[in-house]
Amino acid sequence: MQQSSPSTRKTSNYSIVIVLFLAFTLLSCSQKLLLNSPLATTPDYLAHNKFVAEKAFVLKDNDLAFASKIDIIKNAKKELRLIYYIYDLDETTAFMTHALLEKIKADKDFKVKLLVDYQWNYKNLDFFRWMENQQPNGIQQIEVRFYNRPAVSIIKFAEFMTIGCAGDKIGVQETTPNCAAEKTNYLKKYDGLLLNEAEAEMSLEAKIFLAGFYSKDPNGLLFATQLGYARELQNMTENTAATPTITESEKDNLKKVMKLYWTAKTGNNAQKIQAQIQLSIIGLFYGDQLKPFLNGLETILPFSLKNMDGSAMMANNEMDYVTDYSHHKLILADKEVAQLGGRNCANAYHMHPNDLEKKYIFMDTDVYMHLDSIGGDILQKSYDELWNYTQMVATTTDIEKHAPIGYLYLINKATKMAEAACPKNLNDLEKQGCALQIFVQLLNSSTEALVTEKQKEWGTKYEAFLQSYQNNYLSKTINAKRWTSLDMLFDSNNGYVQNTAFSNTLHSVNDIPIANQEMFYVQNVPFNLSILKRGKLKNRKFGSEYGKEIEHGKMIHKVWEDAFNDACAKSNLTNKPVEIIIHQGYFSPTEGVVHEMNKLMNKNSCPNVTLKIYTNSIGTTDLTPINFIGRRQMQYLLQKNKEFDTDRFQYFEYDKERLTQEVADNFSTENGVKEVGSFSLHTKVMIFGDDIYIGSANAEFRSYMMDTNNGVFIKDAPELVAAYKKLFAELEAKHIVVEAKHSIKFDNAAQLRIQEEKDVAALLDRYAINERESMANRKAELEFFIRQFYATLDQVTAEMKKSLKKKKLKGPSKLDELLKVF
């Protein structure tokens, strides 16, 4: 063998040194890249939420997801914990409620806790009290609580709205310029009171006002305010010495000003705009005559008044966030089995298209999980923290103290009696006065009988819906449905085997199995989630701030933020493509997500990352404003960052015609009716390379700024991600989703406006707005509303322009605050 010369060996040694140097250099760079990856090591906020799902399924099909929930209920041993935004009594929810009642009937020690959203579910309060009263063993085994009970400031607002200055409460004998000050002085009694103490101080009128507010019953609001200051309002429209002389027709219009003015100040964005429209129209007709009336209304409406510390009475967080929702979706049995995701409890989430559900059938994603002991503890403790969060959670007994719904039943009774008892020639104001007099007389009687009757009605509805589900859906085998019992779809006692093949027509995969998978339970809640605050008294947090998500309880969005950055770091480390997929029914990204997407599409920072978005189209969504806003945001991103116009970014929308065709071809009913519920995307899934989030949080402002949410974040799950991606490939192949970059690819917002106007015109035709008799006299209002909505969209573009000039986000976001209620 030929020996190398000393010079050759020396050269070889140098080569080895160089290779080693490069290797160590690359290793060092790799370590730096890993250090820049937020999820390279589990951060503290996630570390305590890690568990193992010993057996799990990602559930795509509605019937299958419902069958698994029923299976969880049937096989629970000691207790069930449920939390849902929507728990509507209809066919599927009646069947689910029946399963709950069967559990308590079979075991006197079995307990059920159900936490629902106050805003959505208050109108059905006596259905939930009917549930609590089902006591087959003579004891209460089901308890229902409501999230986001009215705070002390909301109680003060209700009091102010219903205090009449000529009333006995404050001793003022006539309306005076000091009326507002007298009201403010009266409300001092609430200063320093705890919530339960404040509820005990409430007037009857304030209680009725809250009942009307949460039930969205105009009569409740009207009767409550009339009780306190009807004489003042009438005096304003009749006392010619105090106000300009007006005609009878003008009086009829001015009666409505109070309600409109209140809505313009306190409603959500859409309600505010509508009320402002009507106020503006009145102003056009009456000009300066309107001003004295609005000035007078400040004695009724507290928006310009100050608290003791000088702050505006109504400028407080409780008022700004009065419509925060409990948006969690969870059923947990015995700390052993759980299911969470995007589905609420209603037909639209638990059925295929059929003639029992004629509006929407939602396409969604849930996760069914067998938990290890750690996971069971995590989910139970997180649930109980919300369940016991008394400053925001009310029992049905609490609600009876501050918003007794029985008085609304009494108002309905008085209104019906007035139709027969009051003279027929009265004008609207006089009719209301007559009905109010009857109501005042009825106040001497108890509402208990009316409440009992209402609960009986709910019981009758429950039985009817239960029979309807069993007879008109469960037992039928029409529309490619070949099963007649839910355990034919999902049976945990039989190896989870589906004993009958079925198709949901959208894709061939109905479930994706998972075994022994590490997961992280993540949630958004109204209190600080930092490690230092665990186990301590939790004060309510409002909204969020970039960089302080954990302190504001927004763990889900912190996970997303870190996962975006992690995907970029991994792609740079491996020099291989990393795909991020956003599969969201409601896509209108927060300012933080906007910046994350913009960074991902920076060819210098993340050249190997691709971004795909799958979302609703204007035609398939049930929340149209979200799509318009999201398009504005994406149009500006595409305009400012040319990488969005490359293959690295793809944007898909669900095609309305194809989904309609799916319904017509596969779900026509026995009598040939094809106008059954149409498909709409409701899924909330985010994929970051091999990591995936599945839960209840939408990729829009409410989920970040306002609502509670929950889900699971699953790291390093390439098989699961690959299986989920197959669904997208199938949807694309069937043209159920179509490339829609053209819908956001405009050089400027003015060009996009032309498309928006076409889309609005199509929506008006779709809902036959121009043909409705009820809209004949409101076209001016509608046109004004549309102009105001366009102005909001222009403001979105303006805020996007400001936002993308920022090198670093910090603190509260004007963009997020602007759109949080949509």
Automatic annotation (TrEMBL):
Residues 322-349, 677-703 form the PLD phosphodiesterase domain. Signal peptide: none annotated. PROSITE patterns: PLD (PS50035). SUPFAM superfamilies: Phospholipase D/nuclease (SSF56024). SMART domains: PLDc. It comes from the Bacteria. GO terms for biological process: cardiolipin biosynthetic process. GO terms for molecular function: catalytic activity. This is Phospholipase D-like domain-containing protein. It comes from Aequorivita vitellina.
